[in-house]
Amino acid sequence: MRRKNERKALVEHIYTADPSAHVFNGKIYIYPSHDEDIDLPEDDDGEQYVMKDYHILSMDNLDSECVDNGLALSEEDVPWVSRQLWAPDAVYKNGKYYLVFPAKDKDDIFRIGVAESDSPTGPFKPQEDFIKGSYSVDPAVFLDDDGRTYCYYGGLWGGQLEMWQSGTFNRDERRPEGDEPAIGPMFAEFSDDMTEFISEPKHIQILDENGEPLKASDEDRRYFEGPWMHKLNGKYYLSYSTGTTHYICYAEGDRPDGPFTYKGRIMEPVIGWTTHHSIVEIDGEWYIFYHDSEKTGISHERCVKYTKLDIDENGNITTIKPYE
Ligand code: FUB
Description:
Blueprint: E1 15-24, E2 27-35, E3 53-59, E4 67-74, E5 81-83, E6 89-93, E7 96-105, E8 110-117, E9 125-126, E10 140-143, E11 149-153, E12 186-189, E13 202-203, E14 206-207, E15 225-232, E16 235-241, E17 248-253, E18 260-267, E19 278-282, E20 285-292, E21 303-308
Parallel strand pairs: 14-18
Antiparallel strand pairs: 1-2, 2-3, 3-4, 5-7, 6-7, 7-8, 8-9, 10-11, 11-12, 12-13, 15-16, 16-17, 17-18, 19-20, 20-21
Bound molecules: beta-L-arabinofuranose (FUB).
């Protein structure tokens, strides 16, 4: 039986995407991007994703009305930002809520910043500068059982991840091809006060069934953007978008920093170019929050939805066909 709000747009008065869902104090909070209603062509560099601020959504439970809690952070509030506030996430630590978000700096390079608040819905006060050593997009924050906090991040093409292969930013860097290993997502550990990375950021390896790194040509399985981490029965599950082939896939590992072994597909393509999700346990059941462009047919005008996930005791996830 479907829940009242299942597979429906949670709000329609603004466009929302890239939902990072969490339960804080028994209530559901969703940290999405806020898509602008703007007439721009599709472009591989993502210029049409012109997001200027964040609004946090909340629900008392999965069947209740989804509330837009208003402006939480705006690009003008952040000293280092020039434009494009893309997919954020949030974590509750030390009695504070931290919003972790990517945006382009004054040199038009994507960086990752942190803003804090006493409330899960903001307003959030940004740190003066981006996290030293951070780059690219789509930070997902994972608070492990031992209190350590990790950041998974990175996105190809418009997200600029491949432009850092040499260790410095190079807009013309060639992309790996064919049998070359695919570029994995980034991993770093946050300091306890969430102001910096205390480990050297490193690429995570996603391996195939033979223990070999996934290849660049394996577009049905290799990482593109939108990482998420969930933990079940002591195992770590990294899920992500394959970008060009539009799947959400997952891989399993024994440690938070991998390596991870590819396990399967979580979701078939949604309407729209991008697919981006989060996975959260609510009242003992697992749910995936995701977005699509069913309402508009326009890739950069998206709506956030959720649906239930079937996960067995071995962590296997049944693939979702979003329109069946
Ligand atoms: O929303 C802008 C970008 O589109 C995100 O950073 C990607 O994950 C994709 O959803």
